[in-house]
């Protein structure tokens, strides 16, 4: 059984163990921490054996803190949906030491420097993990993109279909091209919700949405694979024309993968992610009326799921992030069970590592892949690759003690976010976060919960 100290160390000088996940592989080592950063990673001998303030992880795995670049915190304006306090406490419990907040569904949306300041004020002194911000691209705000980049947003986000909230309108091809021309010389990443409204409208014209709204198959048919595939093709054309770095968020469909692969073969600045729900769930197994499963793009079938796993292993997809998108239970409308009326979004911030590790174990994958997909690659995407996502000298001491042998089943009472609605309640998961350290300070301990006070920082210019 894994060993773990009876009393957690609040601010250890050394974390040692037999399975430290480093860029060179998994090995016995000791991580020496000075001033919240990793001073060096050494063999567990000499000064380490005699040091005070040591956390002995035993045979737990020590992972680099997870970096989640796709989180909807919804504060200010819709704090009843989530909020920085609840989201970051849940993040720490899930081993996420850095999250990036999406520019919607807050009010105001993060589409101007003024709105960014309001967002930062809401997050300041209320975050248990480090928090960065994503700026929004909406019709008419091209002139705000440069100032937002200068003010410290780490990436930008837009929608090609309606976002679901009036404050964040979707863009068309002309507006997308204009934004990409602004962002390209800045070296800024544009994250894109890739579904085209024309394909969805065509499906509606064929009667795809005319069936029983309580059946998931009806909803699935209303958002066909072609909506995502054709949107990715558009992004690739504009990426080639403008030189901007485009990042396709939450890839769900196997049909998108050959298009992505071809673009990458051309050397275009194109990256892509998927999410735990697309790697775990199967459309054919979703019960009637189970609106907690609704998201956009939709969860597809088992063949798509396996194609996404293969794409991660092949390098066609770069990373796994949560797309944590919570809402009050009333907005999911579980009693009515109408997939079209329900809010679309899946909440999984606290559970991502265990969901993904379950799938990895089923496929015989080693723990290094989890660190690559959920720590290193997301950090690099948003310009944090020299500070976050690795256990190496000069990096922030963001460390996660993870028990890969643990088995547990999420309950509503165990979840730290504001609302417990999620498709993962009652699902057996693999692996558990025992402790999370953010810049060397204990942010979460499985036996005691989150630290009494928040110590997360905002990733903005000082």
Number of helices: 14
Q: First CA to last CA: what distance?
A: 44 Å
Q: Determine the fraction of residues in helical runs and give it as a percent range.
A: 25-40%
Which structural category do the helix and sheet elements fall into? alpha/beta
Mean pLDDT level: 95
Low-pLDDT residue intervals, each spanning 5 or more residues: none
Major sheet: 9 strands, mixed
* Rg computed from alpha carbons, rounded to a whole number of angstroms: 21 Å
Query: Which percent band covers the strand fraction?
Result: 15-25%
Q: What general form does the structure show?
A: globular
Total strands: the figure is 17
Q: What oligomeric state is this?
A: single chain
Description:
The protein has helices at 47-50, 84-93, 113-123, 142-151, 173-183, 197-205, 216-222, 225-242, 257-265, 276-280, 302-314, 329-332, 352-362, 367-381; strands at 14-22, 25-34, 37-42, 54-56, 61-64, 66-71, 96-101, 130-136, 155-159, 189-193, 245-248, 270-274, 319-320, 399-408, 429-438, 441-445, 449-450. The longest helix has 18 residues, at 225-242. It is of the alpha/beta class. Helix 4 (142-151) packs parallel to helix 5 (173-183), helix 5 (173-183) crosses helix 8 and helix 8 (225-242) runs parallel beside helix 9.
Features:
globular; 14 helices; 17 strands; 462 residues; alpha/beta; 9-stranded mixed β-sheet; 8-stranded parallel β-sheet
